[in-house]
Design a protein that fits this description.
The protein is an all-alpha fold and 220 residues long. The protein contains eight helices and no strands. The termini are far apart. InterPro entries: EF_Hand_1_Ca_BS.
Length: 220
């Protein structure tokens, strides 16, 4: 009888072994299907059976976690510099608002009431920007060690700029009503009175220089 790969031999004994598990291979399960030890040894010797490789999957503990880096709080010098920078922006906007207001007055005196109103409205917006910058300067100064004098200066400048914005806004209404009703109308008189009241209140506040603010902060 012809064997595997053309080799001849007596395989009468193998003819008695049946492929009991139906896998197409005469192996340990066919020789001793009920003896696990025989199956194990035979499979190892013949290289039969399938091998599996264990794969290690990273667990939650193995996965690196992101660590939050604490934000470093600005020191006293940095806070003072931020306060001074904000105060300087407030001064720049305050000066710009004054210049725009002067142009509005010139238009008003030339009876160009609409142009005057537009300039007053612009001045009101810029003065409010100044107010916000001064408020920020006060907030920064409040975090410093030499805070009280600087905070007072910034808050006073903020209040003065807020009133300047209100004066400009009311002056814009005054200008528009002067165009609509005439300069001697009751409507114009009402706006004029409000402006005068606001100006009186504004006289109680002042805007200090940048150098004064820095001295109050303890920086040069």
């Amino acid at each position: 009888m012809v064997g595997v790969a053309g080799c001849s031999g007596d395989v009468s004994q193998e003819d008695d072994i049946q492929d009991s598990d139906g896998d197409g291979v005469i192996d340990s399960e066919d020789y001793a299907p009920s003896d696990p030890e025989v199956q194990k040894k035979s499979d190892v010797q013949s290289g039969g059976g399938s091998s599996s490789q264990e794969v290690n999957t990273p667990t939650e503990a193995d996965t690196p976690t992101e660590v939050d880096t604490p934000t470093e709080k600005p020191n006293n010098t940095q806070l003072a510099e931020q306060a001074a920078a904000a105060y300087e922006k407030g001064l720049n906007d305050s000066n710009s608002a004054d210049e725009t207001g002067d142009r509005a007055v010139n238009f008003f005196e030339s009876d160009d009431y609409i142009a005057a109103a537009e300039q007053y409205e612009e001045a009101a917006d810029v003065a409010m920007n100044a107010k916000n910058h001064f408020s920020s300067a006060a907030d920064f100064a409040d975090e410093t060690s030499n805070k009280q004098g600087a905070v007072n200066l910034a808050e006073e400048a903020s209040r003065r700029s807020e009133l300047a914005s209100q004066i400009a806004s009311e002056s814009a209404k005054w200008s528009r009503d002067a165009k609509k009703y005439g300069e001697n109308s009751d409507e114009v008189d009402e706006h004029r009175q409000r402006v005068e009241d606001l100006q009186t209140r504004a006289e109680n506040y002042d805007i200090g220089t940048l150098n004064e603010f820095k001295i109050a902060l303890g920086i040069t």
